[in-house]
Amino acid sequence: MGSRTWNLEQLHAEDSSYRYTGALMGDLEFTLRQQLLGPSALFRTGLARKEPDAIENPSLETLDALLGLAELDSGNRLARARQIQWFARLGVEDPGALCRERAFLGLAQAAQALAPIEPEAGPKPAEASSQAALSSVLGELVRTARAASERGLSAADAATRRADLEASCELVRTRALDFGGARRALEVATSLAESYGFDDPRMASLAALVEHLERRCAARALAIGLGDRSGLALGAALQATIALYGAQILPGVLNQLRPDSDPLVVRAVLDGLERHGLQRKVDGGPPAEELIRQQELALIEIVLTRSESELRVAAMRVLSRHAASLQGEGALESLREEDWQRWHEQRQLARRTAEGPGL
User: Fold this and answer.
1) What is residue 136's three-state secondary structure?
2) What's the pTM?
3) How far apart are CA 15 and CA 79, in angstroms?
4) In DSSP terms, which residues pair with 53 in a beta bridge?
5) pLDDT the model gives residue 43
6) How far apart are CA 135 and CA 318, in angstroms?
7) Which helix (H) or strand (E) holds 6?
8) Strand extents, DSSP E, the chain
9) Residue 300 is inside which H or E element, if any?
C-alpha cells in the first residue's frame, strides 16, 4: 500500500493538480527506503532519500497507482480508509477524466462494505466549517488520541482519557464538512488509527470516526461526480452510485437525459436498468404506476430519437425485459423501433381506458 499512496502524493499538489517532478518508487524500493532505512541514521544522512526526477506523464502514472491501490484488500481497515481517501479525492479533483473514471470505479469497490451510501451534497460555503475551525478540532483529536494511547495509567485516568477522545471524535462528527474538509479529517483520523491501532479498545471511538468519515467522503464524492462534465467520469460515478446506494437513482437520471446527453452516460443508465429492471419505488418519488410510465416514456424516446444504434438496441433490451415481467411468455421481444412505438401506444391506450372518462 505504501508505494501507491506515496506515489499519489508525489504526483499531486495539495489542490490535486499534477506535479511534473517527484520521487516515484516501486514496492521494493519504497520498502527499502522508507520502511527499512527510513527510521535509521542512513535516512537522516540522506542515503535513504530519493531525489525527485522529471515525470513525463503524471496522468498515466496516476492511473497506474490507482490500479495498484484497487488491488489492495478492502477488508483491511487501514487499506480501505486509504483507498476511500484517495479514490474520493481523485474521483472529484484529478485533472484527467480517465483517472476520475478509474477512481470512481475503485470507490465503488472499496466502500462496498459501507453501503448503502446516499450521494450527499456538502454544506453551502458560508455554512461549512472554516479551515481554522477544522484545524482546531483536528488538533484536539490528535492530542486526545495521543493521551488515550499512553500505557500504565490508572483505571480512572484511562477512562477519563477515553472519554476525552470520544468527545473529540464527536466534535469532528458534528462539524459541517464540505468535501475538502471531510477528506482532510479522514486523512488525519486514519493516520492516528494507523499509529495507535484500529483494533485497540482504547481507540474504539477513533476507529468509528474513521468509518463515519469514510461514508461522508464517499457520499460527497458521489454527489459531485454525478455532475461531472466528462461523460466518462460521470458514467463511472453513476456506476459507483448504483453499487453503493442502489438502483433507485436510475429513474431520476433517466428522466434527465436529453437527446444530446453523452452516449457514455446513457449507456451507463441503460446498463443499470438492464441489470436491475425498471424501478417501482423511489424515496420521495411518484406512485409505482406513474414511475413506471415515466421510465417507459424515457426509454421509448431513446429508441426513437437517439442516432446511436447501440443505445437504441440497449433501450429495446431493457423494454423487452420489462415487457416480460408484465406479460410473461409471449411478451414482445423485438429490436424494431416501430414495434416498441406500437407497444407504447397500446400501453398508453390501456391506461386511459382503465382510468375511465374524465369528469
Assistant:
1) helix
2) 0.89
3) 23
4) 22
5) 45
6) 50
7) helix 2-11
8) 21-22, 53-54
9) helix 288-305
Decide if 221 contacts 107 (C-beta within 8 A). yes
H-type alpha helices, 231-279:
231-244, 250-256, 263-276
* pLDDT less than 70: residues of the chain: 34-49, 328-330, 357-359
- pLDDT of amino acid 46: 47
pLDDT at 141: 98
Specify which residues 21 forms β-bridges with: 54
Contact 185, 174 (CB under 8 A): no
Do residues 192 and 142 make contact, with C-beta atoms less than 8 angstroms apart? yes
- Whose cell is 490507482? That residue is 66
For the stretch 6-61, pLDDT in tens is: 999 999 999 999 999 999 988 878 877 766 555 544 444 444 567 889 999 999 99
Residues near 329 by beta carbon (within 8 Å), at least 6 away in sequence:
none
SS3 state of residue 189: helix
Residue 136 carries which side chain, given as an amino acid letter?
S
Bridge partners (DSSP) of residue 18 are 12
CA 329 remoteness from chain centre: 39
Query: What are the b/e assignments for 36-47, b being 16+ CB within 10 Å?
Result: eeeeeeeeeeee
Q: How do 21-22 and 53-54 pair as beta strands?
A: antiparallel
DSSP, res 248: G
Cell 431513446 identifies what position?
302
Q: How far apart are the first and last CA of the chain?
A: 68
Tell me how far apart the alpha carbons of residues 319 and 352 are, in angstroms, rounded to a whole number. 20
Q: Is there a cis peptide before residue 116, judged by omega within 30 degrees of 0?
A: yes
For residue 46, the SS3 value is coil
- In the chain, the amino acid numbered 148 is A
Indicate the average pLDDT of the chain: 92
Going from the C-alpha of 165 to that of each of 146, 187, 191, the distances in angstroms are: 9, 17, 15
